[in-house]
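User: quick one - fold this with zinc ion bound?
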Amino acid sequence: MNIILMGPPGAGKGTQSERILDYCSIPHISTGDMFREAIKNQTELGVLAQSYINKGLLVPDEVTIGLVKERLSRDDCKNGYLLDGFPRTIPQAEALQVLAKEISRPVQLVINIEADKDELIRRISGRRVCPKCGNSYHLLFKLPKVENICDACGSELIQRKDDTLESLNVRLDAYENQTKPLVEFYSKLGLCKTVNGLQSIDDVFNDIQKLLDEVK
Ligand code: ADP
Ligand code: ADP
Ligand code: ZN
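Assistant: Sure. Structure tokens for the protein plus zinc ion:
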């Protein structure tokens, strides 16, 4: 399956990715995770990405597209992909149309997770993440089994540097201005399906599962 997960920061893309990957085994391509890995290793890409991410701004298209192009050309994507947080701009979506065609894996489904600003603030402010495997937890809504420890790999959880109210406001503006137009872009192609992200994690996944079963 060739799937895109879209939605504002904190809507639940990472959380639902974890559930989707239990359901169908395809490579999980999260540009946010890839940038954070590069920042951790202080590669050239990491240093560049950091200067944008810490301010809540999007990393420039040519950089992000280059990263995804390389990732999609690897062998494991011959069986499909789950894109999480890419594309986020119209030029990225246009580039993906070309890349997907090149690997004979056209986008089949765009899952658009919706949530309002008040809920996004609650989710971002309580979010804790695993620096090793990228899993998301929440201080109120999704506690790990052992306090502050990742269920999947045992690492100590951290708060993301960009999960501040200040950065969230910039990210929400970026979402409204640059990412939201993709809903229309993919609706015109008949690919965009919206899911109510205000439900419980299980109920959101139930809705997503129905959409996956339709394309499976
Ligand atoms: P969130 O989970 O809050 O939606 P991500 O982990 O997906 O955020 O991304 C973190 C940051 O990485 C973004 O705020 C942005 O700066 C950068 N980023 C991630 N994906 C992209 C993309 N497709 N284009 C540009 N910047 C991106
Ligand atoms: P995104 O990847 O879209 O930025 P995450 O999956 O990291 O979002 O979720 C943001 C925060 O909200 C995390 O702390 C996560 O545990 C929590 N969360 C995700 N989905 C839900 C939900 N349906 N109900 C309550 N909390 C949720
Ligand atoms: Zn972990």
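One thing worth noting: The chain has a mean pLDDT of 96.
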